[in-house]
Protein backbone atom coordinates (compact mmCIF):
# COMPACT_ATOMS: atom_id res chain seq x y z
CA UNK A 1 0.00 0.00 0.00
CA UNK A 2 1.29 3.42 -0.87
CA UNK A 3 0.81 6.12 1.74
CA UNK A 4 0.58 9.68 0.50
CA UNK A 5 0.64 12.63 2.87
CA UNK A 6 0.13 16.08 1.40
CA UNK A 7 0.62 19.41 3.15
CA UNK A 8 -0.24 18.10 6.57
CA UNK A 9 -0.44 20.58 9.42
CA UNK A 10 -1.43 19.77 12.99
CA UNK A 11 -1.59 22.20 15.90
CA UNK A 12 -2.27 21.66 19.56
CA UNK A 13 -3.78 25.00 20.53
CA UNK A 14 -1.18 27.63 19.64
CA UNK A 15 1.67 25.19 19.19
CA UNK A 16 2.24 23.74 15.73
CA UNK A 17 3.43 20.13 15.95
CA UNK A 18 3.44 19.28 12.22
CA UNK A 19 4.07 21.96 9.57
CA UNK A 20 2.97 21.53 6.00
CA UNK A 21 4.47 18.06 5.78
CA UNK A 22 4.36 16.05 2.56
CA UNK A 23 5.61 12.50 2.22
CA UNK A 24 5.11 9.41 0.08
CA UNK A 25 5.79 5.89 1.29
CA UNK A 26 5.89 3.16 -1.32
CA UNK A 27 4.29 -0.28 -1.11
CA UNK A 28 6.43 -2.61 1.02
CA UNK A 29 8.71 0.18 2.16
CA UNK A 30 9.89 0.84 5.69
CA UNK A 31 10.13 4.53 6.38
CA UNK A 32 11.61 5.77 9.62
CA UNK A 33 10.76 9.17 11.03
CA UNK A 34 13.85 10.25 12.90
CA UNK A 35 14.44 13.33 14.96
CA UNK A 36 14.84 14.92 18.34
CA UNK A 37 12.21 14.71 21.03
CA UNK A 38 9.31 17.03 20.26
CA UNK A 39 9.99 17.38 16.51
CA UNK A 40 6.57 15.97 15.57
CA UNK A 41 7.21 12.29 14.81
CA UNK A 42 4.47 10.83 16.99
CA UNK A 43 2.04 13.57 15.96
CA UNK A 44 2.57 12.64 12.29
CA UNK A 45 1.91 8.98 13.09
CA UNK A 46 -1.18 9.82 15.07
CA UNK A 47 -2.52 11.74 12.08
CA UNK A 48 -1.98 8.73 9.80
CA UNK A 49 -3.67 6.48 12.34
CA UNK A 50 -6.65 8.81 12.66
CA UNK A 51 -5.99 9.59 16.32
CA UNK A 52 -5.58 13.32 15.65
CA UNK A 53 -7.53 15.63 13.37
CA UNK A 54 -5.07 17.73 11.37
CA UNK A 55 -5.83 21.39 10.61
CA UNK A 56 -4.87 21.04 6.99
CA UNK A 57 -3.80 18.49 4.43
CA UNK A 58 -4.66 15.16 2.93
CA UNK A 59 -3.76 11.56 3.75
CA UNK A 60 -4.46 8.71 1.37
CA UNK A 61 -3.57 5.03 1.21
CA UNK A 62 -3.45 3.46 -2.25
CA UNK A 63 -5.41 6.38 -3.65
CA UNK A 64 -8.17 6.04 -1.07
CA UNK A 65 -8.59 9.26 0.86
CA UNK A 66 -8.56 8.77 4.64
CA UNK A 67 -8.36 12.43 5.52
CA UNK A 68 -8.92 15.58 3.54
CA UNK A 69 -9.34 18.86 5.41
CA UNK A 70 -10.74 20.68 2.39
CA UNK A 71 -13.34 18.07 1.57
CA UNK A 72 -14.20 17.29 5.17
CA UNK A 73 -13.16 13.63 4.89
CA UNK A 74 -12.00 12.02 8.13
CA UNK A 75 -12.30 8.26 8.27
CA UNK A 76 -12.37 7.05 11.87
CA UNK A 77 -9.34 5.26 13.18
CA UNK A 78 -10.94 1.81 13.42
CA UNK A 79 -11.94 1.95 9.75
CA UNK A 80 -8.46 2.72 8.41
CA UNK A 81 -7.05 -0.83 8.46
CA UNK A 82 -3.85 0.44 10.02
CA UNK A 83 -1.94 -1.65 12.56
CA UNK A 84 -0.27 0.12 15.44
CA UNK A 85 2.45 -0.95 17.81
CA UNK A 86 3.33 1.63 20.38
CA UNK A 87 6.02 1.91 23.00
CA UNK A 88 3.76 0.79 25.81
CA UNK A 89 2.57 -2.44 24.39
CA UNK A 90 -0.72 -2.65 26.32
CA UNK A 91 -0.86 -6.40 26.69
CA UNK A 92 -3.61 -7.66 28.97
CA UNK A 93 -1.79 -9.51 31.73
CA UNK A 94 -4.77 -11.61 32.82
CA UNK A 95 -5.14 -13.14 29.35
CA UNK A 96 -3.05 -15.79 27.62
CA UNK A 97 -0.94 -14.99 24.58
CA UNK A 98 -3.62 -16.58 22.39
CA UNK A 99 -6.40 -14.50 23.96
CA UNK A 100 -4.41 -11.29 23.62
CA UNK A 101 -3.78 -11.87 19.93
CA UNK A 102 -7.32 -13.09 19.31
CA UNK A 103 -8.90 -10.09 21.00
CA UNK A 104 -9.28 -7.78 17.98
CA UNK A 105 -10.65 -10.63 15.84
CA UNK A 106 -13.17 -11.58 18.51
CA UNK A 107 -14.26 -7.96 18.69
CA UNK A 108 -15.03 -8.25 14.99
CA UNK A 109 -17.04 -11.42 15.77
CA UNK A 110 -15.19 -13.57 13.28
CA UNK A 111 -15.95 -17.33 13.26
CA UNK A 112 -14.07 -19.30 15.90
CA UNK A 113 -12.17 -21.48 13.43
CA UNK A 114 -10.93 -18.47 11.49
CA UNK A 115 -9.84 -16.74 14.69
CA UNK A 116 -7.88 -19.84 15.73
CA UNK A 117 -6.20 -20.16 12.34
CA UNK A 118 -5.19 -16.51 12.08
CA UNK A 119 -3.98 -16.30 15.68
CA UNK A 120 -1.83 -19.41 15.26
CA UNK A 121 -0.35 -17.93 12.10
CA UNK A 122 0.40 -14.58 13.72
CA UNK A 123 1.99 -16.25 16.75
CA UNK A 124 4.23 -18.27 14.45
CA UNK A 125 5.17 -15.24 12.39
CA UNK A 126 6.51 -13.41 15.44
CA UNK A 127 8.36 -16.49 16.68
CA UNK A 128 6.19 -17.29 19.70
CA UNK A 129 5.32 -20.87 18.78
CA UNK A 130 4.54 -22.87 21.89
CA UNK A 131 3.61 -19.78 23.93
CA UNK A 132 -0.08 -19.58 22.96
CA UNK A 133 -1.39 -20.79 26.32
CA UNK A 134 1.15 -18.93 28.46
CA UNK A 135 -0.28 -16.19 30.67
CA UNK A 136 0.84 -12.81 29.37
CA UNK A 137 2.10 -11.74 32.79
CA UNK A 138 4.63 -14.55 32.59
CA UNK A 139 6.40 -13.21 29.52
CA UNK A 140 9.62 -11.25 29.15
CA UNK A 141 9.60 -7.70 27.77
CA UNK A 142 10.67 -8.91 24.34
CA UNK A 143 7.99 -11.60 24.29
CA UNK A 144 5.33 -9.05 25.26
CA UNK A 145 6.51 -6.83 22.45
CA UNK A 146 6.08 -9.78 20.09
CA UNK A 147 2.55 -10.35 21.37
CA UNK A 148 1.77 -6.70 20.61
CA UNK A 149 3.18 -7.20 17.12
CA UNK A 150 1.18 -10.38 16.59
CA UNK A 151 -1.96 -8.61 17.72
CA UNK A 152 -1.43 -5.99 15.03
CA UNK A 153 -0.43 -8.43 12.31
CA UNK A 154 -3.44 -10.66 12.96
CA UNK A 155 -5.66 -7.87 11.64
CA UNK A 156 -3.81 -8.07 8.31
CA UNK A 157 -3.36 -4.32 8.21
CA UNK A 158 -2.45 -2.58 5.00
CA UNK A 159 -0.04 -0.36 6.88
CA UNK A 160 1.82 -0.79 10.15
CA UNK A 161 2.74 2.13 12.36
CA UNK A 162 5.39 1.40 14.97
CA UNK A 163 6.16 4.13 17.48
CA UNK A 164 9.36 3.40 19.40
CA UNK A 165 8.42 -0.28 19.40
CA UNK A 166 11.74 -1.38 20.88
CA UNK A 167 12.52 1.34 23.36
CA UNK A 168 11.38 -0.59 26.44
CA UNK A 169 13.80 -3.41 25.81
CA UNK A 170 17.38 -3.95 26.85
CA UNK A 171 20.12 -3.42 24.26
CA UNK A 172 20.63 -7.06 23.31
CA UNK A 173 16.95 -7.79 22.85
CA UNK A 174 16.43 -4.56 20.97
CA UNK A 175 19.13 -5.58 18.58
CA UNK A 176 17.64 -9.01 17.99
CA UNK A 177 14.07 -7.78 17.64
CA UNK A 178 14.98 -5.11 15.16
CA UNK A 179 16.52 -7.72 12.86
CA UNK A 180 13.38 -9.83 13.28
CA UNK A 181 11.15 -6.85 12.57
CA UNK A 182 13.00 -6.03 9.39
CA UNK A 183 12.77 -9.63 8.22
CA UNK A 184 9.08 -9.85 9.10
CA UNK A 185 8.23 -6.62 7.34
CA UNK A 186 9.93 -7.83 4.15
CA UNK A 187 8.39 -11.29 4.32
CA UNK A 188 4.87 -9.92 4.72
CA UNK A 189 5.48 -7.09 2.24
CA UNK A 190 4.18 -4.61 4.81
CA UNK A 191 4.32 -0.89 4.31
CA UNK A 192 5.66 0.32 7.64
CA UNK A 193 6.29 3.65 9.30
CA UNK A 194 8.53 3.64 12.35
CA UNK A 195 9.23 6.38 14.82
CA UNK A 196 12.48 6.41 16.67
CA UNK A 197 14.97 8.85 18.06
CA UNK A 198 17.71 6.22 18.02
CA UNK A 199 19.82 6.79 14.93
CA UNK A 200 21.31 3.30 14.91
CA UNK A 201 17.86 1.74 15.02
CA UNK A 202 16.75 4.01 12.18
CA UNK A 203 19.71 3.03 10.02
CA UNK A 204 19.03 -0.66 10.66
CA UNK A 205 15.27 -0.64 10.05
CA UNK A 206 14.74 1.82 7.24
CA UNK A 207 14.55 1.72 3.48
CA UNK A 208 14.24 5.47 3.74
CA UNK A 209 14.76 7.87 6.63
CA UNK A 210 12.87 11.13 6.95
CA UNK A 211 14.74 13.50 9.28
CA UNK A 212 12.33 15.77 11.13
CA UNK A 213 13.01 19.08 12.85
CA UNK A 214 10.43 21.54 14.15
CA UNK A 215 7.49 19.68 12.60
CA UNK A 216 9.06 19.51 9.14
CA UNK A 217 10.93 16.98 7.09
CA UNK A 218 14.33 18.50 6.48
CA UNK A 219 15.97 15.59 4.69
CA UNK A 220 14.80 12.32 3.25
CA UNK A 221 16.92 9.58 1.73
CA UNK A 222 18.30 6.09 2.02
CA UNK A 223 20.08 5.38 5.31
CA UNK A 224 23.52 5.49 3.68
CA UNK A 225 22.71 8.83 2.04
CA UNK A 226 21.52 10.41 5.26
CA UNK A 227 24.44 8.99 7.22
CA UNK A 228 27.03 9.90 4.61
CA UNK A 229 25.63 13.24 3.38
CA UNK A 230 23.65 15.08 6.04
CA UNK A 231 22.36 18.40 4.75
CA UNK A 232 23.19 20.44 7.81
CA UNK A 233 25.43 20.44 10.85
CA UNK A 234 22.45 20.00 13.15
CA UNK A 235 21.44 16.81 11.27
CA UNK A 236 25.06 15.62 11.35
CA UNK A 237 25.09 16.24 15.09
CA UNK A 238 21.95 14.16 15.54
CA UNK A 239 23.54 11.38 13.47
CA UNK A 240 26.46 11.14 15.86
CA UNK A 241 29.10 13.20 14.05
CA UNK A 242 31.37 14.02 16.98
CA UNK A 243 33.30 16.94 15.50
CA UNK A 244 31.31 19.96 14.41
CA UNK A 245 33.60 22.94 14.31
CA UNK A 246 32.77 26.55 13.40
CA UNK A 247 34.73 27.58 10.32
CA UNK A 248 35.02 30.56 7.98
CA UNK A 249 35.48 30.33 4.23
CA UNK A 250 39.01 30.98 2.96
CA UNK A 251 38.64 30.01 -0.65
CA UNK A 252 36.65 27.53 -2.76
CA UNK A 253 38.53 24.56 -1.32
CA UNK A 254 39.65 25.62 2.10
CA UNK A 255 38.25 26.89 5.38
CA UNK A 256 39.74 28.24 8.57
CA UNK A 257 38.83 27.22 12.13
CA UNK A 258 37.12 30.20 13.77
CA UNK A 259 39.28 32.00 16.28
CA UNK A 260 42.52 30.52 14.90
CA UNK A 261 44.79 30.92 11.92
CA UNK A 262 44.57 27.20 11.13
CA UNK A 263 43.28 26.39 7.67
CA UNK A 264 42.34 23.02 6.21
CA UNK A 265 41.60 21.82 2.71
CA UNK A 266 38.09 20.62 2.03
CA UNK A 267 35.94 19.56 -0.87
CA UNK A 268 34.05 22.37 -2.66
CA UNK A 269 31.26 23.69 -0.46
CA UNK A 270 28.41 26.15 -0.60
CA UNK A 271 29.45 29.33 1.20
CA UNK A 272 26.13 31.14 0.72
CA UNK A 273 24.39 29.42 3.58
CA UNK A 274 25.43 31.63 6.48
CA UNK A 275 27.30 30.11 9.41
CA UNK A 276 29.40 27.13 8.42
CA UNK A 277 30.60 24.10 10.31
CA UNK A 278 33.23 21.54 9.38
CA UNK A 279 31.75 18.14 10.25
CA UNK A 280 33.98 15.12 10.62
CA UNK A 281 33.41 11.77 12.26
CA UNK A 282 35.78 10.69 15.02
CA UNK A 283 36.46 7.40 13.21
CA UNK A 284 37.63 9.18 10.05
CA UNK A 285 40.49 11.09 11.69
CA UNK A 286 43.94 9.51 11.59
CA UNK A 287 45.97 9.68 14.79
CA UNK A 288 49.68 9.56 15.64
CA UNK A 289 51.81 7.47 13.28
CA UNK A 290 48.75 6.80 11.09
CA UNK A 291 48.64 10.50 10.19
CA UNK A 292 50.89 11.33 7.19
CA UNK A 293 53.57 13.75 8.35
CA UNK A 294 53.75 16.00 5.31
CA UNK A 295 50.19 16.86 4.44
CA UNK A 296 48.09 20.02 4.38
CA UNK A 297 45.49 18.52 6.69
CA UNK A 298 47.87 17.08 9.24
CA UNK A 299 47.80 19.14 12.41
CA UNK A 300 49.49 18.86 15.74
CA UNK A 301 47.75 18.91 19.05
CA UNK A 302 47.78 17.84 22.66
CA UNK A 303 45.86 14.91 24.07
CA UNK A 304 43.58 16.40 26.71
CA UNK A 305 41.47 13.33 27.43
CA UNK A 306 41.53 9.64 26.74
CA UNK A 307 38.74 7.16 27.17
CA UNK A 308 39.37 3.44 27.00
CA UNK A 309 36.37 1.60 25.54
CA UNK A 310 37.63 -1.99 25.44
CA UNK A 311 38.20 -2.75 21.78
CA UNK A 312 38.76 0.92 20.91
CA UNK A 313 39.53 4.21 22.59
CA UNK A 314 38.53 7.83 22.13
CA UNK A 315 40.97 10.68 22.39
CA UNK A 316 40.27 14.37 22.66
CA UNK A 317 42.99 16.35 20.95
CA UNK A 318 43.31 20.12 21.40
CA UNK A 319 44.72 21.65 18.24
CA UNK A 320 44.25 25.27 19.31
CA UNK A 321 42.59 27.05 22.23
CA UNK A 322 38.89 26.32 21.82
CA UNK A 323 39.36 23.80 19.00
CA UNK A 324 39.27 20.19 20.15
CA UNK A 325 38.76 17.06 18.08
CA UNK A 326 37.38 13.71 19.17
CA UNK A 327 39.36 10.94 17.51
CA UNK A 328 38.85 7.17 17.60
CA UNK A 329 41.94 5.08 18.10
CA UNK A 330 42.96 1.55 18.90
CA UNK A 331 43.44 0.08 22.35
CA UNK A 332 47.17 -0.15 21.53
CA UNK A 333 47.22 3.59 20.96
CA UNK A 334 45.41 4.04 24.25
CA UNK A 335 48.10 1.99 25.99
CA UNK A 336 50.90 3.95 24.37
CA UNK A 337 49.57 7.47 24.81
CA UNK A 338 49.15 9.72 27.83
CA UNK A 339 47.26 12.92 28.51
CA UNK A 340 49.44 15.93 27.79
CA UNK A 341 51.32 14.21 24.97
CA UNK A 342 51.60 15.93 21.62
CA UNK A 343 50.31 13.98 18.64
CA UNK A 344 49.64 14.38 14.95
CA UNK A 345 46.11 14.17 13.61
CA UNK A 346 45.14 14.01 9.96
CA UNK A 347 41.76 15.10 8.61
CA UNK A 348 41.25 13.41 5.22
CA UNK A 349 39.74 15.92 2.79
CA UNK A 350 37.02 13.51 1.64
CA UNK A 351 35.89 12.91 5.24
CA UNK A 352 35.21 16.58 5.97
CA UNK A 353 31.87 18.14 5.12
CA UNK A 354 31.43 21.87 5.33
CA UNK A 355 27.75 22.39 6.09
CA UNK A 356 25.40 25.17 7.11
CA UNK A 357 24.27 25.03 10.74
CA UNK A 358 20.68 24.39 9.69
CA UNK A 359 19.13 22.90 6.57
CA UNK A 360 18.41 25.80 4.16
CA UNK A 361 14.61 25.61 4.41
CA UNK A 362 14.84 25.55 8.18
CA UNK A 363 17.36 28.32 8.61
CA UNK A 364 14.81 31.07 8.16
CA UNK A 365 12.38 29.38 10.48
CA UNK A 366 14.98 29.05 13.21
CA UNK A 367 16.04 32.69 12.78
CA UNK A 368 12.43 33.77 13.16
CA UNK A 369 12.40 31.87 16.44
CA UNK A 370 9.10 30.31 15.45
CA UNK A 371 10.02 26.90 16.80
N1 LIG B 1 -1.59 16.32 23.29
C1 LIG B 1 -0.77 17.37 23.11
N2 LIG B 1 -1.13 18.60 23.51
C2 LIG B 1 -0.32 19.68 23.33
N3 LIG B 1 0.90 19.61 22.74
C3 LIG B 1 1.32 18.41 22.32
C4 LIG B 1 0.53 17.22 22.49
N4 LIG B 1 1.20 16.18 21.97
C5 LIG B 1 2.37 16.68 21.51
N5 LIG B 1 2.45 18.01 21.72
C6 LIG B 1 3.55 18.90 21.32
O1 LIG B 1 3.74 18.79 19.92
C7 LIG B 1 5.10 18.73 19.57
C8 LIG B 1 5.42 17.44 18.83
O2 LIG B 1 5.22 16.35 19.69
P1 LIG B 1 5.44 14.84 19.26
O3 LIG B 1 4.98 13.95 20.35
O4 LIG B 1 4.86 14.63 17.92
O5 LIG B 1 7.03 14.79 19.13
P2 LIG B 1 7.99 13.53 18.95
O6 LIG B 1 8.94 13.93 17.89
O7 LIG B 1 7.21 12.30 18.73
O8 LIG B 1 8.74 13.50 20.35
P3 LIG B 1 9.23 12.25 21.26
O9 LIG B 1 10.41 11.68 20.55
O10 LIG B 1 9.59 12.90 22.54
O11 LIG B 1 8.08 11.30 21.37
C9 LIG B 1 5.87 18.88 20.87
O12 LIG B 1 6.24 20.22 21.01
C10 LIG B 1 4.86 18.48 21.93
O13 LIG B 1 5.12 19.16 23.14
Automatic annotation (TrEMBL):
The ABC transporter domain covers which part of the protein? 3-239
Gene3D superfamilies in alphabetical order: P-loop containing nucleotide triphosphate hydrolases
Protein keywords: ATP-binding, Nucleotide-binding, Transport
Q: Please give the InterPro entries that the UniProt record associates with this protein.
A: AAA+_ATPase, ABC_SmlMolc_Importer, ABC_transporter-like_ATP-bd, ABC_transporter-like_CS, Mo/tungstate-bd_C_term_dom, P-loop_NTPase, Transp-assoc_OB_typ2
Q: Does the keyword Transport apply?
A: yes
User: One MF term in GO for this entry?
Assistant: ATP binding
Please give the name of this protein.
ABC transporter ATP-binding protein
Q: Which organism is it from?
A: Leucobacter albus
Amino acid sequence: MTIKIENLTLSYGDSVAVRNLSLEIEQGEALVLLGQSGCGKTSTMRCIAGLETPDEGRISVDGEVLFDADRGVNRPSHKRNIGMVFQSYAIWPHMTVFENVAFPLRMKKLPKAEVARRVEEAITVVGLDGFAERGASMLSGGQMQRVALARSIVMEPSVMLLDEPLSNLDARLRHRLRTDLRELQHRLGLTAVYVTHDQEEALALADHIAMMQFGRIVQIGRPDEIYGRPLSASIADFLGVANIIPVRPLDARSVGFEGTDIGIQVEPYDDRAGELRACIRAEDILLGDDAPAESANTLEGEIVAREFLGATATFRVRIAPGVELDVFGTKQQANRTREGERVRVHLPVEAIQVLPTEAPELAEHVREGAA
